[in-house]
């Protein structure tokens, strides 16, 4: 028996509380997380396949998928670049205000989404601080597609920063010293030496940011303008159907959103597991 | 030895870009919240905060958060103990399942609860027959808030307890300590700061939840309106100062959360330096 197996069987025998902690965990996960999802399928069972298909492919709903996916993709790309820059600056440099900047990175997670929503809408409206500067230049942000992407980027930026930061911190100094002493320029050394270490974390963080943006509601609805076919996100479509007491319609669209986000979550988990294993496998 | 990006020009450019972008993107909204809230003076701010409906919303929001925290605490500790102290089939599945609330859109979270416990749902119709109403009442708000916030404590504890290992608890157990004695005397002191941070995160999210709560609350002023919902109504009614007064209260909680995180991290790094 190897040491790991010995330790695990040992702890199973010695430590108490297996039954209690298993009981609480399974009961909680079943009641709080899994049982409600069955309600969704119960509702969907009342629909025929043709009805279901008609709801989820209706023009206005399809337009909302396009708006949501497009804006979330743009927000994720912005965050990939901006998040990488912030993580790099926070790990590699010393400067006044660094601790404050680091603390500020968590603001979008700590700030309620509705607060972010009305604040961004007020800032970027025509008479807001930012709107006043941008609109004369021809950039309209509030009540357009750009505003949706902006709100998504705001709420999901910490995912990228907080995923890339620890990987960058663990990178030993010798890695880039070696590259530099061999005469590589900054740009080449970054691309060839640093990026291969960073990109699994960068992809994971960007993926999480994307998933979060797909489902975001509170931060977006105030700045979106919510014009059918133009600036309506899918989460809002579900909400609108509910207000019309169209539970079947709301459930059908929700099932699409649920399926896509769970599939993406699973894909990110598998991807993450693979590269973690590869890193540890390298060490033996 | 020179490292990548150490040239003064590159360094200054990158730090400058990070600071300017963060100031515009993150700091400016924060400043704007308080500027808007106090744009008509402290007296108007105070009148908006001390308004009956606002006070009721604050009370409901805090009440729901206070009930959410112990529920999430018990679940989080139990799950973290289970997956870090024992090895059993299905362990990884449990760890993936608790991430569901992070991936599910809050509106979808509210909807699935409404479908199950609402008057037409299979549990809801039975409850309705017994005159119990969960949806469009505070229990519904509590239920979706628990759904949305349940991963936070577990997610803070699992990596820490995994890193600490179970040697200390095993030593206590072999010396004859009972299960709860081991937990209170060994485990809890080891995890207390991560536990505290998990609670702070749970609280921040519970207080600010909007999408899921707006589906199940019905948003009746003075009855089922939480602070984020109240803020939305004021904003839609063109009472911007009132909306931002509520926003400022919520932003204050967010700032306290950030300060707590920074001080807990500082504490941890100092302890590491001492070791």
TrEMBL record, chain A:
<keyword id="KW-0764">Sulfate transport</keyword>
<feature type="transmembrane region" description="Helical">
    <location>
        <begin position="20"/>
        <end position="42"/>
    </location>
</feature>
<dbReference type="Pfam" id="PF00528">
    <property type="entry name" value="BPD_transp_1"/>
</dbReference>
<dbReference type="InterPro" id="IPR000515">
    <property type="entry name" value="MetI-like"/>
</dbReference>
<dbReference type="InterPro" id="IPR005667">
    <property type="entry name" value="Sulph_transpt2"/>
</dbReference>
<comment type="function">
    <text>Part of the ABC transporter complex CysAWTP (TC 3.A.1.6.1) involved in sulfate/thiosulfate import. Probably responsible for the translocation of the substrate across the membrane.</text>
</comment>
<comment type="subunit">
    <text>The complex is composed of two ATP-binding proteins (CysA), two transmembrane proteins (CysT and CysW) and a solute-binding protein (CysP).</text>
</comment>
<dbReference type="InterPro" id="IPR035906">
    <property type="entry name" value="MetI-like_sf"/>
</dbReference>
<comment type="similarity">
    <text>Belongs to the binding-protein-dependent transport system permease family. CysTW subfamily.</text>
</comment>
<feature type="transmembrane region" description="Helical">
    <location>
        <begin position="137"/>
        <end position="161"/>
    </location>
</feature>
<keyword id="KW-0813">Transport</keyword>
<feature type="transmembrane region" description="Helical">
    <location>
        <begin position="201"/>
        <end position="227"/>
    </location>
</feature>
<keyword id="KW-1133">Transmembrane helix</keyword>
<feature type="transmembrane region" description="Helical">
    <location>
        <begin position="62"/>
        <end position="91"/>
    </location>
</feature>
<dbReference type="InterPro" id="IPR011865">
    <property type="entry name" value="CysT_permease"/>
</dbReference>
<protein>
    <recommendedName>
        <fullName>Sulfate transport system permease protein CysT</fullName>
    </recommendedName>
</protein>
<keyword id="KW-0472">Membrane</keyword>
<dbReference type="GO" id="GO:0015419">
    <property type="term" value="F:ABC-type sulfate transporter activity"/>
</dbReference>
<dbReference type="GO" id="GO:0005886">
    <property type="term" value="C:plasma membrane"/>
</dbReference>
<feature type="domain" description="ABC transmembrane type-1">
    <location>
        <begin position="65"/>
        <end position="268"/>
    </location>
</feature>
<feature type="transmembrane region" description="Helical">
    <location>
        <begin position="247"/>
        <end position="271"/>
    </location>
</feature>
<comment type="function">
    <text>Part of the ABC transporter complex (TC 3.A.1.6.1) involved in sulfate/thiosulfate import.</text>
</comment>
Automatic annotation (TrEMBL), chain B:
<keyword id="KW-0472">Membrane</keyword>
<protein>
    <recommendedName>
        <fullName>Sulfate transport system permease protein CysW</fullName>
    </recommendedName>
</protein>
<dbReference type="GO" id="GO:0005886">
    <property type="term" value="C:plasma membrane"/>
</dbReference>
<dbReference type="InterPro" id="IPR000515">
    <property type="entry name" value="MetI-like"/>
</dbReference>
<keyword id="KW-0764">Sulfate transport</keyword>
<feature type="transmembrane region" description="Helical">
    <location>
        <begin position="194"/>
        <end position="220"/>
    </location>
</feature>
<keyword id="KW-0813">Transport</keyword>
<keyword id="KW-0997">Cell inner membrane</keyword>
<feature type="transmembrane region" description="Helical">
    <location>
        <begin position="55"/>
        <end position="84"/>
    </location>
</feature>
<dbReference type="InterPro" id="IPR011866">
    <property type="entry name" value="CysW_permease"/>
</dbReference>
<keyword id="KW-1003">Cell membrane</keyword>
<feature type="domain" description="ABC transmembrane type-1">
    <location>
        <begin position="58"/>
        <end position="262"/>
    </location>
</feature>
<feature type="transmembrane region" description="Helical">
    <location>
        <begin position="240"/>
        <end position="260"/>
    </location>
</feature>
<comment type="subunit">
    <text>The complex is composed of two ATP-binding proteins (CysA), two transmembrane proteins (CysT and CysW) and a solute-binding protein (CysP).</text>
</comment>
<comment type="function">
    <text>Part of the ABC transporter complex CysAWTP (TC 3.A.1.6.1) involved in sulfate/thiosulfate import. Probably responsible for the translocation of the substrate across the membrane.</text>
</comment>
<dbReference type="InterPro" id="IPR005667">
    <property type="entry name" value="Sulph_transpt2"/>
</dbReference>
<keyword id="KW-0812">Transmembrane</keyword>
<dbReference type="Pfam" id="PF00528">
    <property type="entry name" value="BPD_transp_1"/>
</dbReference>
<dbReference type="InterPro" id="IPR035906">
    <property type="entry name" value="MetI-like_sf"/>
</dbReference>
<feature type="transmembrane region" description="Helical">
    <location>
        <begin position="96"/>
        <end position="116"/>
    </location>
</feature>
<keyword id="KW-1133">Transmembrane helix</keyword>
<dbReference type="GO" id="GO:0015419">
    <property type="term" value="F:ABC-type sulfate transporter activity"/>
</dbReference>
């Amino acid at each position: 028996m190897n040491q790991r197996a010995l330790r695990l069987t040992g702890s199973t025998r010695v430590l108490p509380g297996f039954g209690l902690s298993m009981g609480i965990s399974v009961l909680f996960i079943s009641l709080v997380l899994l049982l409600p999802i069955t309600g969704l399928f119960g509702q969907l069972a009342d629909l025929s396949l043709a009805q279901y298909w008609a709801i989820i492919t209706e023009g206005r709903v399809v337009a909302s998928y396009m708006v949501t996916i497009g804006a979330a993709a743009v927000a994720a790309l912005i965050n990939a670049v901006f998040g990488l820059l912030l993580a790099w600056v926070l790990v590699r440099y010393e400067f006044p205000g660094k601790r404050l900047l680091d603390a500020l990175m968590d603001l979008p997670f700590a700030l309620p989404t509705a607060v972010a929503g009305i604040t961004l809408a007020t800032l970027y409206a025509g008479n807001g601080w930012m709107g006043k500067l941008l609109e004369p230049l021809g950039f309209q942000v509030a009540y357009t597609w750009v505003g949706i992407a902006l709100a998504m980027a705001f709420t999901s930026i910490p995912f990228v920063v907080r995923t890339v930061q620890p990987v960058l911190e663990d990178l030993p100094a010798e890695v880039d010293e070696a590259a530099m002493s061999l005469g590589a320029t900054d740009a080449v050394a970054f691309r060839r030496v640093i990026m291969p270490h960073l990109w699994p974390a960068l992809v994971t963080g960007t993926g999480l940011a994307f998933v979060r943006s797909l489902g975001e509601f509170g931060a977006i609805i105030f700045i979106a303008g919510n014009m059918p076919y133009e600036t309506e996100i899918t989460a809002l479509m579900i909400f609108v159907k509910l207000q019309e007491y169209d539970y079947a319609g709301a459930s059908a669209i929700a099932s699409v959103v649920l399926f896509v986000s769970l599939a993406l979550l699973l894909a990110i988990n598998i991807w993450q597991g693979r590269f973690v294993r590869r890193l540890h496998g390298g060490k033996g | 030895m020179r490292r990548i990006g150490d040239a003064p020009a590159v360094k200054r450019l990158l730090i400058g870009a990070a600071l300017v972008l963060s100031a515009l993107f993150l700091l400016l909204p924060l400043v704007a919240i308080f500027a808007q809230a106090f744009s008509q003076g402290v007296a108007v701010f105070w009148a908006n905060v001390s308004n009956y409906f606002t006070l009721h919303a604050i009370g409901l929001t805090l009440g729901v958060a206070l009930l959410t925290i112990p529920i999430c605490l018990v679940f989080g500790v139990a799950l973290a103990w289970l997956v870090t102290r024992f090895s059993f089939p299905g362990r990884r599945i449990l760890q993936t399942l608790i991430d569901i609330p992070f991936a599910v859109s809050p509106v979808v979270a509210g909807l699935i609860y409404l479908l199950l416990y609402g008057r037409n749902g299979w549990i809801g119709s039975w409850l309705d027959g017994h005159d119990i109403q969960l949806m469009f009442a505070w229990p519904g708000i509590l239920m979706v808030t628990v759904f949305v916030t349940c991963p936070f404590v577990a997610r803070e504890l699992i990596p820490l307890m995994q890193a600490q290992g179970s040697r200390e608890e095993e030593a206590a157990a072999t010396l004859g300590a009972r299960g709860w004695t081991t937990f209170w005397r060994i485990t809890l002191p080891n995890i207390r700061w991560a536990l505290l941070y998990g609670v702070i995160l749970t609280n921040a999210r519970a207080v600010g939840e909007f999408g899921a709560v707006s589906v199940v609350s019905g948003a009746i002023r003075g009855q089922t309106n939480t602070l984020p919902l109240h803020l939305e109504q004021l904003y839609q009614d063109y009472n911007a100062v009132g909306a931002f007064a509520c926003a400022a209260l919520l932003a204050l909680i967010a700032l306290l959360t950030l300060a707590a995180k920074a001080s807990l991290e500082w504490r941890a790094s100092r302890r590491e330096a001492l070791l």
